[in-house]
């Protein structure tokens, strides 16, 4: 038994995570679907989409910008104004009516953004002025080389910390169960953690503790507003996505885990390709629920994720693409119903197609 988590050892068993009771340990991983309008407002179909997937123990939403300046892709939603908040309320209500739980993933894309996506006068920012060697999306969807970001000032950092805290307040006001801080996959929080993107010489760079400081400050500010039991953090140690050079950065992740541990967040959510001593050490040190995502190598099938729970490597597992094409994934797994294959062409576009039209295998039955 991990402190705060009642362990019962199969993916189908309920678990308490922070302040939230989950019906099972299968989490729908955060997935950007680009269905919001230019104002960052999700359509009503998003409520249908998420409610269809409410048999997940927990849904983590698509990456969502905590401010207009944090946006890095066309069609991602925001949670920084009243109209956006109303759309989230419909989603939270629909998921709860279907018996589910939902956390909003807060994502600031940092240097993985484009000026055409953010308000006039706002800047593309990062810990240090180092451009990513990748293409980024313009507002019109055309891919272009990433721009040179501006190094954040202390004042800029404080403003972003405030934006995350205010967005978390909106998330709760909209009825969402909590938030997940996106500190993975090469976006702003990850950019602070990694020495390849963080060359700062002030209190936010230069040592493991200092690189971890920004993420810890964001977490502290969010926890002060909504309670740490309603906040998770996602990390991808060693991840190379979005031109990250994060290998050999183990000390920063241990410093981060230590810096966050005192808060007792609801969970730590780690993206992991292969197990390593760092992963085992994070699991051992982390005081509350530990979530793993071992995807991308293929589908995250029941046979892949189940041993993570039974062996005690994790308390929760998150699954991405299978949830896109199988809204009733947990029921399919429980009853051995074959899984449908996803269609990559509709991941990031397609309106309702590839979004809310994947069939339920169990419709009209009492299969739970
Ligand atoms: C369409 C799509 C969008 C994604 N968007 C996000 C995102 O917004 N935030 C995030 O943390 N990860 C995102 N991911 C990564 C997933 O959360 C997950 O880690 C990945 O899909 C691997 O799991 P899987 O093999 O079960 O799909 C995305 C993945 C996909 C396929």
Model description:
With about 375 residues, the protein is an alpha/beta fold. It has one domain: TIM Barrel (Alpha-Beta Barrel). Helix content is about 30%, strand content about 15%. It is built from ten helices and 14 strands. It has helices at about 45-50, 80-95, 155-175, 190-195, 210-225, 250-260, 275-285, 300-310, 320-325, 330-335; strands spanning about 15, 20, 25-30, 60-65, 100-105, 125, 135, 145, 150, 180-185, 230-235, 265-270, 290-295, 315-320. The strands form four sheets. It has an eight-stranded parallel β-barrel, surrounded by four helices. A two-stranded antiparallel sheet has the order 1-2. Helix 6 links the parallel strand 11 (about 230-235) and strand 12 (about 265-270). Helix 1 packs parallel to helix 2, helix 5 (about 210-225) runs parallel beside helix 6 and helix 6 (about 250-260) packs parallel to helix 7. The protein is globular and about 55 Å long. The model has no long low-confidence stretch (mean pLDDT about 95). It binds flavin mononucleotide.
Low-confidence stretches are: none
- Give the CATH topology: TIM Barrel
Largest beta-sheet details: 8 strands, parallel, barrel
DSSP helix fraction? 25-40%
Ions, cofactors and other bound molecules:
flavin mononucleotide
Architecture per CATH nomenclature, i.e. the level-2 architecture: Alpha-Beta Barrel
Distance between the termini: 27 Å
Spell out the helices and strands N to C: EEEHEHEEEEEHEHHEHEHEHEHH
Q: Write out the CATH superfamily name.
A: Aldolase class I
């Amino acid at each position: 038994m991990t402190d705060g988590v009642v362990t019962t050892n199969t993916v189908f068993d309920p678990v308490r995570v922070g302040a939230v009771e989950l019906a099972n340990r299968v989490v729908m991983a955060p997935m950007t679907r680009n269905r919001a309008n230019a104002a960052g407002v999700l359509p009503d179909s998003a409520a249908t989409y998420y409610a269809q997937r409410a048999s997940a123990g927990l849904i983590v939403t698509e990456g969502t910008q905590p401010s207009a300046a944090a946006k890095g892709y066309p069609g991602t939603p925001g949670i920084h104004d009243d109209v956006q908040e109303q759309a989230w309320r419909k989603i939270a209500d629909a998921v709860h009516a279907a018996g589910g739980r939902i956390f909003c993933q807060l994502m600031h894309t940092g240097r993985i953004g484009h000026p055409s996506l953010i308000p006039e006068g706002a800047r593309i920012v990062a810990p240090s002025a180092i451009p990513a060697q990748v293409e980024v999306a313009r507002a019109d969807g055309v891919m272009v080389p990433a721009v040179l970001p501006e190094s954040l000032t202390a004042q800029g950092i404080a403003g972003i910390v405030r934006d995350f805290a205010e967005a978390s307040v909106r998330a709760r006001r909209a009825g969402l169960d909590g938030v997940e801080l996106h500190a993975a996959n090469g976006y702003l929080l990850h950019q602070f953690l990694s020495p390849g993107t963080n060359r700062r010489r002030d209190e936010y760079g230069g040592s493991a503790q200092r690189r971890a400081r920004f993420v810890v400050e964001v977490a502290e500010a969010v926890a002060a507003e909504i309670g740490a039991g309603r906040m998770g953090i996602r990390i991808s140690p060693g991840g190379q996505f979005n031109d990250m050079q994060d290998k050999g950065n183990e000390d920063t992740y241990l410093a981060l885990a230590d810096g966050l541990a005192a808060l007792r967040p609801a969970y730590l959510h780690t993206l992991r390709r292969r197990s390593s001593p760092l992963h085992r050490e994070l699991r051992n040190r982390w005081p509350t629920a530990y979530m793993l995502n071992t995807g991308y190598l293929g589908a995250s099938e029941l046979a892949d994720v189940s041993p993570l729970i039974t062996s005690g490597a994790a308390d929760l597992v998150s699954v991405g693409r299978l949830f896109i094409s199988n809204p009733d994934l947990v029921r399919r797994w429980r009853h051995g119903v074959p899984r449908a294959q996803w269609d990559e062409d509709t991941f990031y576009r397609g309106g309702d197609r590839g979004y809310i039209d994947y069939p339920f295998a169990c419709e009209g039955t009492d299969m739970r």
